[in-house]
Specification:
Bound molecules: iron/sulfur cluster
Largest sheet: 5 strands, antiparallel
Radius of gyration: 20 Å
Strand content: 15-25%
Structural class: alpha+beta
CATH topology of one domain: Enolase-like, domain 1
Strand order of the largest sheet: 4-5-8-6-7
C-alpha cells in the first residue's frame, strides 16, 4: 500500500477546494469501497480528504412532496426513513438488499452512486482492464464473464454496474446535485452513469473535485406501491444477477404509467425504455409484461458465460411487474 496523507474538513467549500486543487487527491466518505481499492492498489491517491464531518447527511422532505437525500446520508438511515419507506418502497428495498447491515451503516448515498465495478479483472492489477489501465484490453470478454453485462456493453468493457439503489433512483428519475469549483449543478440520474463506449475509464460526468451534496427524489405518487426485486446467487450480501425496480400505475385494467429500472445486467443502471413503451396503454396482465420484457432484452449482447441473464432479466421484470400490479390494485 502506498503512503498517503489524510486531511479532515468540515465545510463543503473547503472540501471542494482541497480536492479540486490536487489531481492526486480523493474524497473519503464511508470508505467501504475506496479503502478496499486503496489497499489493493487500484486507487492510488496521494492525499485523502475526509468529508464525513460535512453537514450534508440530512434526509429532508421537499415542499413538492419529494425527498432530498444528503450526499452523506447513510444507506441504512435512508432505507429506514419513514418518508422513504412510505413513498418510495422501491428505494428502501433496493438499499436493504445491497451489501451487509454493517456496510449499509457506513456507506453513504454519494459513495453508492460513485462506487466502482466489481469485475474481478478490474481488481486484479495483473489483468488487462481498460477501465483500470486504458488501452490494455478487457480480460473479461474472453474470460470468466458469468456475472457481466449483456446491455450497454462495448468492445472495451462489459462490467456490470453494481449499485441497487441507483437502479431504484433511475426508475424514480432522481437528480444528483453536485458542488464543484465552478459552483453547483444538477444532473439527472439518467445522465449520471456513462456507458463504457470507447472510454470505459470515465464512469460519470463528474469533474475531479466535484462533490455529491444531495440526491433529489421527485414526487412520484405511483411509487407508493413500487417494487424492487433482486435475483442473486445467495440470499444476502451478494450482487444482483438481475434486478428490476418497477413503478406501475394501472387504470381501468390498463397500464397508465410504467417506469422500469434494471440492475445486474447492464453497464449502467438501466432504464428499460423499450419495455415501458410496449406497456403504455397495454392491458395490465401477464402477456403484456412478457412481451415488454422480451422487447427490452432483444438487443442484449451475450458473451460466452452470461447468455442466461437474458431470460433471467425477462423473468425478473415480469415478476416485478406482476407484484407491482397486484400492489397497485390492492391500493386502488
Ligand atoms: Fe476491465 Fe471492464 Fe473488462 Fe472488467 S469488463 S476487465 S472492468 S474493461
Amino acid at each position: 500500500m502506498r503512503p498517503f496523507s489524510y486531511t479532515r474538513v468540515s465545510d463543503p467549500a473547503t472540501a471542494v477546494e482541497e480536492v479540486a486543487s490536487d489531481p492526486d487527491s480523493a474524497f473519503l466518505a464511508g470508505g467501504t469501497t475506496e479503502v478496499d481499492l486503496i489497499r489493493i492498489g487500484v486507487a492510488r491517491p496521494r492525499r485523502v480528504v475526509d468529508i464525513n464531518a460535512l453537514p450534508i447527511s440530512r434526509i429532508e422532505e421537499a415542499p413538492d412532496g419529494g425527498v432530498r437525500l444528503g450526499g452523506l446520508a447513510r444507506m441504512s438511515d435512508v432505507a429506514a426513513h419513514p418518508v422513504v419507506r412510505e413513498r418510495y418502497p422501491v428505494l428502501t428495498r433496493a438499499l436493504e438488499s445491497g451489501a451487509s447491515p454493517q456496510l449499509r451503516n457506513m456507506a453513504t448515498m454519494g459513495g453508492n452512486m460513485m462506487q466502482r465495478v466489481r469485475c474481478s479483472y478490474f481488481r486484479d492489477g495483473d489483468a488487462a482492464c481498460n477501465k483500470r489501465a486504458p488501452g490494455s484490453g478487457c480480460a473479461a470478454i474472453g474470460g470468466v464473464n458469468r456475472g457481466h453485462a449483456v446491455l450497454g456493453t462495448s468492445e472495451h468493457c462489459i462490467a456490470v454496474h453494481p449499485s441497487d439503489a441507483a437502479v431504484a433512483l433511475t426508475a424514480l428519475e432522481a437528480v444528483v446535485r453536485l458542488r464543484g469549483p465552478d459552483g453547483e449543478r444538477s444532473v439527472p440520474v439518467g445522465d449520471f452513469f456513462l456507458p463504457p463506449g470507447d472510454t470505459p475509464e470515465r464512469e460519470h460526468p463528474v469533474e475531479h473535485g466535484e462533490l455529491i451534496t444531495a440526491i433529489d427524489v421527485p414526487p412520484v405518487p405511483a411509487a407508493r406501491t413500487s417494487v424492487y426485486l433482486k435475483v442473486r446467487d445467495r440470499e444476502s450480501y451478494e450482487f444482483a444477477l438481475a434486478s428490476a425496480a418497477v413503478v406501475l400505475r394501472v387504470q381501468d385494467g390498463a397500464v397508465a404509467e410504467a417506469r422500469i429500472g434494471l440492475g445486474g445486467v447492464a453497464t449502467t443502471p438501466w432504464r428499460a425504455h423499450r419495455a415501458e413503451e410496449a406497456l403504455a396503454g397495454a392491458p395490465a396482465e401477464g402477456a403484456s409484461y412478457e412481451l415488454a420484457a422480451v422487447r427490452e432484452m432483444r438487443e442484449a449482447v451475450p458473451r460466452s458465460m452470461n447468455a442466461y441473464k437474458i431470460e433471467l432479466a425477462e423473468r425478473t421484470m415480469v415478476r416485478a411487474l406482476r407484484t407491482a400490479a397486484a400492489r397497485a390494485e390492492g391500493v386502488g
